[in-house]
Design brief:
The complex is a heterodimer of chains A (358) and B (427). Chain A is an all-alpha fold and 358 residues long. Chain A has a domain of 245 residues. Chain A has 15 helices and 4 strands. In chain A, helix 13 packs antiparallel against helix 14. Chain A is globular and about 70 Å long. Chain B has 427 residues and is α/β, with parallel strands linked by helices. Chain B folds into 2 domains: 218 residues, Rossmann fold, CATH 3.40.50; 155 residues, Rossmann fold (3-Layer(aba) Sandwich). Chain B is 45% helix and 15% strand. Chain B is built from 14 helices and 13 strands. Chain B has a 7-stranded mixed sheet, sandwiched between helices. In chain B, strand 12 and strand 13 form a beta hairpin. Chain B is globular and about 60 Å long. The chains are: A mainly alpha (358), B alpha/beta (427).
Chain lengths: 358, 427
């Protein structure tokens, strides 16, 4: 009824190739941006910021980063936790070495450092594929965590081996540390997420993204039609590393504030982000958001329902969380192997035809 | 039936209605995950003491206490969620029972003005109250633990450890790394040789570490472990036939569940402690009468009298006594977190006060002051008897080496103060 192309005339190629060709979609997108930028910052409190929105935004960035590598370029990676750690430690070293520089620059630089590290670990992908590459990136995960535990320079020789985010500013507003206002940390992460999503969306629609997808679909065929596998794979590792580094830096500096590498960036983190990408939908930007929301919000919702509403013992609720989240993952993978993004796509398709399916 | 329904509804309404005048004590517990074996008894003990205070005394100073339990799974992300979701309820003091979560909460609680009590864990230099205004780690900290073990070994070896080899098996995290600096200082002072062997989370895989111990044959092995790591280490030590009486754990590596699985082979294993063990105290009769018999015991109710249950009980008792002190200081029963902080800083725990609570010699007598948030650092030693399945105190609470610990605390807290621009208080 409302949701269709009919009557939405395009008079130029730019209009025809825009991200949201359907008017309703476009307005919905502007509406979401409006709410996120202009409504939530004024109503947010500490609990919503630190317990729900920050992890959602940060995991979304990580999921977009991993989705570029796994979903668009077909290179399976289990090193996400390690790469996030690179971002976090790079950010920490920069924050402590240049306290007067804006956090904005530190986070971008941390992303850049991670991009370089990610390319280094991506080099083997030119020779090894599939499961073997997964094992190689797993080695990266363990090596990086070991490195940050082992070399005291990375944690400025602190006795506990922890890194703590000191208070730093961006644009004159306190961004990190316990006294940072909730709206500022939220907006800071949101700006990065919007930036990353925009870049990712446009990269994947263009020449670079098409070469990634060609490699993903069949690398030999892609090579024959003139896609350079070296360039395609390494750009995917670089861009993915950049995003994951940003998410790692934000995760440490804004969300947790104190990080212990083995605990915060262990192998479970790699799996968590990979699950987000798989559940959300491989090769979909929206899927990254959906997957992150699913895995961040569901445990909190289950906890609130179980403990606060039903008054069950906390351990029972914690066990139920594992059971329910696990069961839902299996359910989604059986019913919709292409993830939540595909459900969304099907729903939109149905809506376009409604009320006359044929 | 109808009658029952009405009471139920009434009860639900009362529970759901605004509970204004409660003293809220959050319990960031972990009853799931690889560290649950230690988390459950502590959480049970913590909860049971507050139930006891409510049932026996009608609360603290006439105001009922309310315990909010939140499951962290020893995970820092969930710890943040728990902290944010409970702090708005008027939480008086946080005891997260996790060094990782403690490191996160130190700046957060400072900003929110809520005291943090990390009893025998957390950041050791928080003992310096001049820098850490709202963090307390009385009655003892990790460095006291390290020094206590070395002092005990000195006593056992006629005051001389020269040329002895000591190995430290530690959980490779902020928690496990804490004692290394102190042990290094002590090794320089007493002339023993220190080897450190990290064990990665969660600690089920320790074959290579124990192989190294077998090869190097250290005279003593110390352990900074937690969760499943402890039982694995005790089992591995038994497997290589390491003499158990030369194997000493910190207080987080010395509970029943750590040694039970190794059976008779664990006999003689030792651990340091800052509170007493067993249930030979009058307070346990009260717990039986007011908590267990009324069916109010937390969890499964099978942990009462365990080492970590006692520690939870002790932590809750100190919190309650600090709240009483705060009520007396400020002349109001309905205290705020800031008042609670004052109460903790002015806490005095002489033997007489503990006797009155039915907990004579449960812990050392101590006073907290503005400068010293760490208490006296008195450390005792317990030993496991596999036959009777009990821990017993074999060395009484002794002074630790403050000549070594004090400068370390001052240096570490000074660096924290300069990093965060904190001016010393207590002038």
């Amino acid at each position: 009824m409302f949701y269709r192309e009919a009557g939405d005339f395009k008079v130029s190629y730019e209009q025809d190739s825009q991200t949201f060709p359907i008017k309703f979609d476009r307005y919905r997108y502007y509406f979401v941006l409006l709410i996120a930028f202009l409504v939530i910052p004024f109503t947010i409190n500490d609990y919503w910021a630190s317990a729900i929105l920050l992890p959602f935004l940060i995991y979304s960035i990580a999921a977009i980063g991993l989705n570029i590598l796994v979903g668009y370029c077909g290179q399976v990676s289990l090193g996400t936790g390690g790469f996030m750690a690179v971002g976090a430690y790079a950010c920490y070293k920069l924050m402590t070495a240049f306290p007067e520089v804006s956090m904005f620059i530190h986070v971008l630089l941390a992303g850049g450092v991670t991009g370089v590290v990610c390319v280094l670990f991506g080099l083997p992908s030119l020779r090894i594929k599939g499961f073997y590459l997964a094992v190689a990136t797993l080695a990266a995960q363990f090596f990086l965590v070991w490195l940050f535990n082992r070399v005291p320079w990375f944690y400025n020789y602190s006795a506990s081996g922890q890194i703590n985010a000191p208070e730093r500013e961006a644009f004159g507003i306190l961004i990190t540390g316990p006294n940072a206002p909730a709206w500022a940390t939220y907006l800071f992460c949101l700006i990065f997420l919007a930036f990353c999503a925009l870049v990712a969306r446009n990269l994947t629609r263009g020449m670079v993204g098409r070469s990634w997808m060609a490699i993903r679909d069949m690398d030999i065929a892609a090579e024959i039609i003139g896609v350079n596998p070296l360039k395609a794979k390494l750009t995917a590792f670089a861009v993915s590393g950049f995003f994951i580094g940003i998410s790692g830096a934000l995760f440490f500096a804004l969300y947790l504030g104190a990080v212990e590498v083995g605990e915060a960036f262990g192998i479970t983190k790699s799996f968590q982000v990979l699950f987000m990408v798989i559940i959300g939908g491989l090769g979909s930007i929206f899927g990254s958001f959906a997957g992150a929301a699913f895995l961040v919000l569901l445990p909190v919702i289950l906890k609130v329902v179980g403990v606060d509403v039903l008054g069950w013992p906390t351990d029972i609720v914690a066990h139920f969380q594992l059971v329910i989240v696990g069961a839902l993952i299996v359910f989604f993978l059986i019913v919709e192997p292409h993830g939540l993004a595909q459900l969304w796509r099907v729903a939109k398709e149905k809506l376009r035809l409604w009320p006359f399916p044929h | 039936m109808k009658m029952k329904l009405t009471t139920l509804a009434l009860g639900a309404m009362m529970a759901a209605g605004p509970a204004m005048a409660d003293l809220v004590f959050p319990s960031l517990s972990y009853r799931t995950g690889p560290y649950a074996a230690g988390g459950i008894p502590f959480a049970d003990g913590y909860a049971d003491y507050f139930t006891l205070v409510n049932e026996r005394d009608g609360g603290i100073g006439g105001v009922k206490t309310r315990l909010i339990e939140c499951e962290t799974g020893y995970n820092t992300e969930k710890g943040v969620e728990c902290y944010e979701s409970t702090k708005g309820e008027g939480a008086l003091v946080y005891q997260p029972l996790s060094t990782g979560i403690t490191y996160q909460l130190i700046p957060k609680t400072a900003a929110d003005g809520i005291p943090l009590h990390t009893m025998g864990y957390g950041r050791t230099s928080a003992a310096n109250g001049e820098v850490f205004g709202n963090v307390f780690n009385y009655p003892a900290n990790y460095w006291d633990g390290a020094s206590g073990i070395i002092n005990y070994l000195l006593d056992e070896n006629g005051g001389d450890l020269k040329g002895k080899k000591i190995a430290l098996v530690f959980h490779n995290s902020a928690y496990g790394k804490e004692p290394i600096r102190t042990l290094e200082e002590l090794s320089a002072k007493h002339g023993f040789e220190l080897t450190t062997l990290p064990v990665d989370h969660p600690g089920q895989e320790q074959k290579s570490q124990w192989l190294q111990i077998r090869r190097e044959r250290p005279d003593f092995v110390l352990m900074w472990g937690w969760g499943v790591m402890n039982q694995v280490a005790v089992q591995e030590a038994a497997n290589i036939r390491f003499p158990m009486e030369n194997f000493i754990g910190v207080w987080w590596s010395g509970a029943e569940h750590d040694v039970l699985s190794a059976g008779a082979a664990a006999d003689g294993y030792k651990a340091v402690t800052f509170h007493n063990v067993g249930r030979d105290f009058p307070v346990f009769d009260d717990i039986q009468k007011y908590v267990v018999d009324k069916g109010l015991a937390a969890g499964a109710g099978d942990q009462i009298g365990n080492v970590l249950y006692n520690r939870g009980l002790y932590a809750a008792m100190l919190a309650v006594e600090a709240a009483k002190t705060a009520q007396e200081m400020h002349g109001t029963a309905d205290i705020t977190p800031a008042m609670m902080r004052d109460g903790m800083e002015a806490l005095e725990m002489p033997e007489a006060r503990m006797s009155a609570l039915g907990m004579r010699y449960f812990g050392p007598a101590f006073n907290v002051s503005c400068e010293n948030h760490g208490g006296p650092g008195l450390v005792g030693v317990t030993q496991w008897d596999a036959e009777s399945k009990t821990w017993s105190l074999i060395a009484d609470f002794q002074k630790t080496d403050s000549d070594v610990i004090k400068p370390l605390i001052d240096a570490d807290s000074a660096s924290y103060a300069s990093e965060n621009g904190i001016e010393p208080r207590c002038q």
